[in-house]
Amino acid sequence: MPVSKKLFSRKELLKLIFPLIAELGLTLLVGMIDSVMVSSVGEAAV
Predict the structure, then answer these.
(1) Angle, CA of 19, 24 and 26, to the nearest 5°
(2) For the whole model, what pTM was predicted?
(3) Pick the residue with more confidence: 24 or 46?
(4) Which residues of 19-39 are buried (b: 16+ CB within 10 A; e: fewer)?
(5) Concatenated DSSP letters for 1-46?
């Protein structure tokens, strides 16, 4: 059986995954802050 070479090593994948997780976390945080800001001004202001 031929040995297939991996496209990315584990270390290279971690270098790619950490920024993705950070970006998703920041997007979630901004969405939560936006919801809190909109809910604090009241229905009439919206």
Answers:
(1) 95
(2) 0.65
(3) 24
(4) eeeeeeeeeeeeeeeeeeeee
(5) -PPPPPSS-HHHHHHHHHHHHHHHHHHHHHHHHHHHHHHHH-TTT-
